[in-house]
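Handout, section B. The chain below has 377 residues.
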Amino acid sequence: MKKNMNPFVVSGKISGEYFCDRIEESALLEKSLNNQFNIVLTSPRRMGKTSLIDFTFDKPSIKEEYIAITIDILHTTTFREFIFVLGSAVFEHVAKRNERLRKKFVTLLKSLSASFGYDPVQNTPTFDIKLGDIQQPEYTLREIFSYLESVNRRCLVVIDEFQQITRYPEKNTEALLRTYIQKMSNVNFVFSGSQRRLMEEMFFSSKRPFYQSAKLLRLDSIPLQTYYDFAASHFQKAGKNIQYEAFAYVYETFWGVTFYVQRLMKDAFAETPTGECCDMEAILQLTDDFIYENESRLREQLSFITEAQKELLYAICKEKSAKSITSAAFNKKHRLRSPSSTQSAALRLLEYDLITQKERTFSISDPLMSLWLSRHL
């Protein structure tokens, strides 16, 4: 381990020695991509989907054979924005590799040819495209995909938070993308999403365009004992220790969500002097500090929802796992306005990803939000 290196990485790429488990998931993803499958990767948010993809893409069988292109579309609100993000990424990761690929990109993207910039120092075109330059999104998409098909190396395109396309005002986005993607022979896709129910409906409902077009990979929590062994070994390498009970408290409090466990372990490692042990007292203080650190952000999230939505959110938090939320009994117990109002509020909270639905059971999506609400209700 590098001197002064905190082994609990919470941002950027994670090197192999600091990557915890995911052996089966990584092997399955690698094998599937090497056999030209498209993949649907689902998990709750902050479970480590992006880190798993980065880790797998760094393996020689992927890194040496493919060109990887990753886009995050969570912030996009229209199909035109999607095209802009995709085009920018393709230019950055593919076209900029050499002069021939750059020229081909400019040549094939006829719908944008007049909008490309030019770098006089490098004597090369630049992707100086603005949203307003994309006047024919479908035609530009076809050109981008045609370009990827012409590249002499197989491409892997990762679309993170893919369920976002269902919120675009253009109603035919799913069908349009499916039409072009199914024809691709030089590109495979990883469709990654944190809203598991919606993602699986998109790909496994016979009524949807992407039906049975990709292989499913679900990412769940790393097992408690496996994660503890990983954490304890890194503490020990640095001449420190951590109590099993202290680690288990973090794991269970934050539902095994990778980002939160990593963050609390990062803090615990930093605060534990060499030769000493991180115990329950220390972990409880670090948890309190972490909640306080995020309090303003959590309050801000609630400021964007209505009173009726807050009332339902609080009710679900009290129940932990809430069933039959539109029943008269549930509404009476939690003094909600009416079953119809509850149903409308639930739809909005699902849309905002503040709650999660599994079959007919609702729960808070974010363990930190749940913990904070529990302390304030």
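Note. The mean pLDDT is 94. Compare this with the example in section A.
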